[in-house]
Amino acid sequence: MMTVKDILNLTDVKNQNLPKIVADSAFKKYDVLYLPVFEESAQNMMKDCKELKSLKLTGKKKEAHNLVVDGQLWKVRGMGKKGKMTPRTIRRMFGSMFLGGEVVRLKSIAILCDEADWAYFAAIGIHVAALNPSIYKPKAPKKPALTVALVNESFKGATLAKVKKEVKRGENTAEAKNLMRILGATPPNSLSTEAYAEVVQKLARKWGVKCKNVSKRELKKYELLNAVSHGSGHDSKLLILTIPVKGSKKNTVVVGKGICYDSGGMQGKGSHMKSMKEDMAGSASVLSTVLNIVKNKHQLKETTHFLLPLAENMMGTSAQRADDVWTAGDGQTVEIVHTDAEGRLVMGDAICYAKNNLKNIDKVYTIATLTGSCVVALGEVYTGNLCNDDELRQEAVEAGQKTGDLVFSGPWDLEYDDNISPVADVANLGQKERDAGWLKAGYYLARFVPKDKKTGEHTAKFCHFDIAGSIDMDGSGAPHRRKGFSSGVGVGFLTELLSK
Ligand SMILES: [Zn+2]
């Protein structure tokens, strides 16, 4: 198995054999040239370039030509309408061109980059695509890293400087996304709650971010956080990273689910257990968001506290049962209806910890691989969202469009909330458990969000993300990234929402 040091080594970009990304106004010196062609530009490209004249380019999707010009391989690829390109499709275009070029064992690839504005997403796409699970096999032979050039005749002077800056920013965001993807892919016997806590603390120290590992004594009254780990040989943990904002009177809280392994508990998952090592992806996306914020020097709106509740949901003889009733950190009692609905238990208690220790909580964000129901509803394209504030909901959807981590917001209507129990304040599953489970999991969490004692109305905005589908753990068959790593979703919209 791997040690904490091994895991930290993997998270270091120096050990990831990533390509060097450069910007250039000339393209001749590279082994291969990728030419994305768009419907709007196909005619002009043929007019400007005599080698392309005979190809009758349309720019339509799936159009593909390979030709050799002065000893250089040109790969001409139809990409459809340029006006329809989005941050998501730009990322994917550059990612799949990188992987398509790499298989032919070249030293350098040039990709025509139509717009200087695309460089940020191009760099993300390339470095996400380049991360290779062979990093887990130290004895595997390493190929020398490629050079990838973003080329355009206009990349000179101030434009070139801008493109270079955007590439650097994109590499930073990719580093953050890859951190999340590496932690998610790390085998769960190596990334125990204790090892993960150590990794988080060491990374936070490296980044210069304050990090608290809450003591076992202080955690005692958070029965739900602890109960999830009762069947495991590993204790539950709560890590809190804080980025203060000078003059900020309000606090933002971000909670990410960190279930280091989810066997489903006593009620089990049966044959659906494989890949449950990645049930800590919500917490990893929160941690990676901190890295993205630090590296790209984002200014935050408010002092922000990043909470990572960690636990392992196993079936040991002391494991919690369905029918158990536990008391949360804010005094609410919770009946366990299903032991596989454990992510909401640790996250609810993390919100309680924030309530008990912070004043003026303005916003609570939660992110988790929370429900199979969200996968059924939205598949792997959109992250499911639930939000109690119209303006913030709109912001969340826009943050998704702007970063390419797409967000679909469901209805905020407490008529759905049937998380009720005859013997406790709340049940950890809705009574009609199959119906709208991804919404009900959010309404469960909403019960712990700060409320006015008299009116019972929320005093904080609440915005919840379910990435169970959009994490796309396997990614099998995706041309823009390798099998073995997830999509790294969440870093984009979280950074966008938290930053000024
Ligand atoms: Zn579960």
Summarize the structure.
With 500 residues, this protein is of the alpha/beta class.
Describe the structure.
This protein has 500 residues and is of the alpha/beta class. The chain has 2 domains: 16-171, 3-Layer(aba) Sandwich (Leucine Aminopeptidase, subunit E, domain 1); 187-498, Aminopeptidase (3-Layer(aba) Sandwich). The chain is 33% helix and 19% strand. It is built from 14 helices and 18 strands. The strands form 3 sheets. Strands 7, 8, 9, 10, 11, 14, 15, 16 and 18 form a 9-stranded mixed beta sheet that branches. Strand 15 (383-387), helix 12 and strand 16 form a beta-alpha-beta unit. Helix 3 (87-102) packs across helix 4. The model has no long low-confidence stretch (mean pLDDT 96). Bound molecules: zinc ion. Zinc ion is lined by residues 262, 264, 313, 340, 342-343.
Largest sheet: 9 strands, mixed
* Shape estimate: elongated
Structural class estimated from helices and strands: alpha/beta
CATH-defined architecture of the largest domain: 3-Layer(aba) Sandwich
Termini gap: 42 Å
| Count of DSSP-assigned helices | 14
Low-pLDDT ranges: none
Distinct small molecules: zinc ion
DSSP strand (E) fraction?
A: 15-25%
CATH C-level name of the largest domain: Alpha Beta
> Superfamily at the CATH H level of the largest domain?
Zn peptidases
Helix content: 25-40%
Number of domains: 2
From the 3D structure, determine the CATH topology of the largest domain.
Aminopeptidase
User: Taking Cα atoms only, what radius of gyration do you get, to the nearest Å?
Assistant: 24 Å
How many strand segments?
A: 18
